[in-house]
């Protein structure tokens, strides 16, 4: 019987756990109920050690296999929800106004719990598995918090692995690539200051709105004229806050947005060009510009050896025809990048159906039918990376 098939006896329980998590979403660093449920289930399943409060609300379970190896790996699932109002009619819809599991982290948590139960019952691996339940992936960089709280000093891992559900991809498929798979994500804030006044006498003002409008246009030249076309970068201005209307020219406006890139040198270039362009455009209009470029999550980079192992493990579960190893990277960001910066590993996408609502949509709901494949992948990965000696 397949690994996924062996999960059938307790699949109903896992689905119930997923629905419970979905109904009680908790956003970044508020995952107290979720963490308590995770810790209780790990103890119930017979996990050897359960540690809580890591990186504020993170949980780590320690599970030892049959054998004497001192090798160890980490499996990571994120637990947090999003500040979005749910618009589904499922019976387990969010009970918390303005918060919902719109990215499937309830499913991620459930799949790793299912893997924990299976691995604790069978222990058909040689070494130690650290089950990492991480807070605050969406907002707050919970992976970085766990690392700075001593994650890998306390639970040493030679490699670490992550997984995300992916609507829009063939159900049950698994996709990955070597190298960058998700982009670095940076936040920009630009404050333009001039001299306010009456709109009927614009010559007596130094209008920050006109300067800001030119900045929005000029900043698009970074990706089209400064970044090498064979590389990728995104500069998106997503906010333009200005004025109170009527005849008043404001003294100050604010622009905001995001920048995405894969390569460190491209990231450096985008930041430098953004500051240069804003400063020089401001000077041309006799105003000033203050640019705050805040670096967020780094690029999520998959290591070659671990990606090969992940692909082999995936083929055992879903078949070679459903495994893609050269998937096109996405410009979305993922704080698992911090863990991959500390340890080699791989991040994969589990297809949940081509007709499913997209991530972060108010009508999103994790596809429960994908739970067995996700558990199967985790178990297969452990048995592939930490094989028992013949």
UniProtKB/TrEMBL annotation:
Task: Give the highest taxon in the source lineage.
Answer: Bacteria
InterPro entries xrefs: Amidohydrolase, Bact_exopeptidase_dim_dom, Peptidase_M20, Peptidase_M20_dimer
Show where the Peptidase M20 dimerisation domain sits. Answer: 189-282
Q: Where does Mn(2+) bind?
A: 103, 105, 138, 164, 360
Which CDD domains is this protein grouped with?
A: M20_Acy1-like
Keyword Plastid listed? The answer is no
| UniProt entry keywords in alphabetical sequence | Hydrolase, Manganese, Metal-binding
Needed cofactors: Mn(2+)
Q: Does the keyword Metal-binding apply?
A: yes
Q: Which Pfam families match?
A: M20_dimer, Peptidase_M20
Q: Which GO terms describe its biological process?
A: diaminopimelate biosynthetic process
Select a single GO molecular function from the record's annotations and give it: N-acetyldiaminopimelate deacetylase activity
How the cofactor binds, per note? The Mn(2+) ion enhances activity.
Alphabetized NCBIfam families for the sequence: amidohydrolases
What is the protein named?
A: M20 family metallopeptidase
Q: Which organism is it from?
A: Microbaculum marinisediminis
């Amino acid at each position: 019987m397949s690994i996924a098939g062996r999960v059938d006896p307790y699949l109903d329980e896992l689905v119930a756990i997923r629905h419970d998590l979905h109904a009680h979403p908790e956003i970044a660093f508020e995952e107290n109920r979720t963490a308590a449920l995770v810790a209780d289930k790990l103890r119930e399943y017979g996990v050897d050690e359960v540690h809580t409060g890591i990186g504020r609300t993170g949980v780590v379970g320690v599970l030892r296999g049959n054998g004497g190896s001192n090798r160890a790996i980490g499996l990571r699932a994120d637990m947090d929800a999003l500040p979005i109002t749910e618009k589904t009619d499922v019976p387990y819809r969010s009970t918390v106004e303005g918060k919902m599991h719109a990215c499937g982290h309830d499913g991620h948590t459930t799949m790793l719990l299912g893997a924990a139960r299976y691995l604790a019952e069978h222990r058909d691996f040689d070494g130690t598995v650290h089950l990492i339940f991480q807070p605050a992936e969406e907002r707050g960089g919970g992976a970085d918090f766990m690392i700075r709280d001593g994650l890998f000093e306390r639970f040493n891992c030679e490699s670490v692995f992550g997984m995300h559900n992916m609507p829009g991809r063939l159900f049950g498929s698994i996709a990955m690539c070597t190298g960058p798979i998700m982009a670095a994500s940076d936040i920009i804030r630009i404050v333009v200051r001039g001299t306010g006044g009456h709109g009927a006498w614009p010559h007596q003002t130094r209008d920050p709105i006109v300067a800001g409008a030119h900045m929005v246009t000029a900043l698009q030249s970074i990706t089209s004229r400064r970044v090498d076309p064979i590389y990728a970068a995104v500069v998106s201005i997503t906010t333009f806050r200005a004025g109170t209307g009527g005849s008043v020219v404001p003294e100050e406006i604010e622009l905001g947005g995001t920048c995405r890139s894969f390569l460190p040198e491209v990231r450096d270039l985008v930041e430098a060009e953004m500051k240069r362009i804003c400063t020089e455009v401001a000077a041309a209009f006799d105003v000033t510009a203050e640019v705050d470029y805040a670096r967020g999550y780094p690029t999520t980079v998959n290591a070659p050896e671990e990606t090969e192992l992940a692909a082999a493990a995936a083929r055992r579960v879903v078949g070679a025809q459903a495994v893609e190893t050269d998937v096109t990277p996405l410009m979305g960001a993922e704080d698992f990048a911090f863990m991959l910066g500390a340890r080699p590993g791989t991040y994969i996408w589990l297809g949940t159906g081509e007709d499913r609502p997209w991530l972060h949509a108010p009508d999103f709901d994790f596809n429960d039918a994908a739970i067995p494949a996700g558990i199967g992948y985790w178990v297969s990965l452990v048995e592939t990376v930490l094989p028992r000696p013949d």
